[in-house]
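Quick one: structure tokens for this chain, please?
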Amino acid sequence: MQAYRLAALAAGLTLPLAALPQPAHAQVDDAIVLEIMRQCARIDDASARLACYDNNVRSAGASPARNTVPGQIAAPQASSAAPAVRGFGSEDVRRSDRFDSTPAGQLDELTTRVTAVRMQQPGVYRLTLEDGAEWQFSESVPNSYRPPREGSVVTIDRAALGSFLMVFDNQMSVRVRRIR
């Protein structure tokens, strides 16, 4: 009986809401929307790119926002902080101003020499490469694994879901992440 009363009450509340006039949404040509999205996608800075998407979707009538003209692309704001980390795997370095992991370059693998090796904990090593980039093992390796030494050549490949695998001396691959 109690469930019947609640259902009747809910039905009674939704009928008046359905009778209220709904706002009319402007129809925008799909080609215009696609061009706006392409223009936004060209913005390198992730927060400026997101702002471009948000501002243009709002201006098309999705939700109330600033007064902008539909179809007009919002100008991205220039980022004051220049990215200090560049090169292969730089998108994996955590920074406070960037939360996405879009690949910065087109390289699928990097083969380079190790300039320094530090053991962080048993089975986990931090490597410094020729270009100054620092990579750390994401998982520990067994005692039988021979870690690279100074002067060793390693290959780092892109793996699934934005991760990286390092291969050294025909041993098993090790999941690594770029620190700096």
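The beta strands are 109-121, 124-129, 134-137, 153-158, 164-167, 174-178.
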